[in-house]
Model the fold of this input.
Amino acid sequence: MNKTLKEMDVLRQHLAKHQLKLTRQRELILTAFLRQEHVTAETMYHQLAKKDPHLGLATIYRTLNLFCEAGIAQARHFGTQTQYDNISHKGHHDHLICTGCGTIVEFENCEIERLQEEVATKNGFVIQTHRLELYGLCAHCRH
Amino acid sequence: MNKTLKEMDVLRQHLAKHQLKLTRQRELILTAFLRQEHVTAETMYHQLAKKDPHLGLATIYRTLNLFCEAGIAQARHFGTQTQYDNISHKGHHDHLICTGCGTIVEFENCEIERLQEEVATKNGFVIQTHRLELYGLCAHCRH
DNA sequence: GTTGAAATTGATAAGCTGTCTCAAGATAGT
DNA sequence: ACTATCTTGAGACAGCTTATCAATTTCAAC
Done:
């Protein structure tokens, strides 16, 4: 197995272009990162502790930021933390959040995305990313 | 002067409902807050230093969070800081934010709001509030 | 207007997230 | 294998926000 992932090539190219090196840690973090929709540095730190107990939190931050520069990830402020989103899953970034129990439902709506582009264009903007969060009560919490 | 502001009543009601008290500081901060579209705690701290040199930063944070609970303000994370937006004065609006220069353009789009309701209903939610932010480059920063 | 229980304040310590420092170790071109 | 350069890990550090707590203020009941 271990087929050549598109993202791994993107990373390799980015590294070569900037005189950076491909390390064991960077490969490890990328592989784990690609398996998920969005993560925080802290989350990955705990996830990867099993595979490499000495992997430092600083390295994870550095690497996730590197992924952002390489165009593989996208940082987004969510609450007090920074979420790193997997770009290849773009379009799944919106959230429906229950203020009662904290449940988070992810959704996608092309029509809303289209209207966002429309608004941006009208104002001379080119959208890089967006964030849409709907807060309310889920069916269960309304009782 | 000192006419009765709608927001002051909203605050008074909220305070009464939660056994909280109306203080000189809360009045002062609300008055200053309502004059602006969005502020950070730090900004208000400096603005109000002239009127009350002993007003503490912690009090400003506490009070702005209180405004959020009362529905007068809405917190928004931008970069590493928290912006407090005045929503009760102009009604709800969404933001178009330039990642280059930080310019914030406000907009409103009924069609998007309608689609949001649709998504919520489909998932059994009843929306209380929402947040929509589009990040990108403004016409000026694209060069 | 006094009184007193309860909330609030100001000052600062503490907490949290993320970045910086630097010696030791890994990488990759030769 | 050698060497210049980059990276790592550990902890120190920095910026923003919240918690702590003694002193003060509010407000409702007298």
About this structure: The interface with chain A takes residues 77-79, 96, 98-99, 105, 107, 109, 111-112, 115-116, 119-120, 123-139, 142 of chain B (CB under 8 Å). Residues 57-70 of chain B form the longest helix (14 residues).
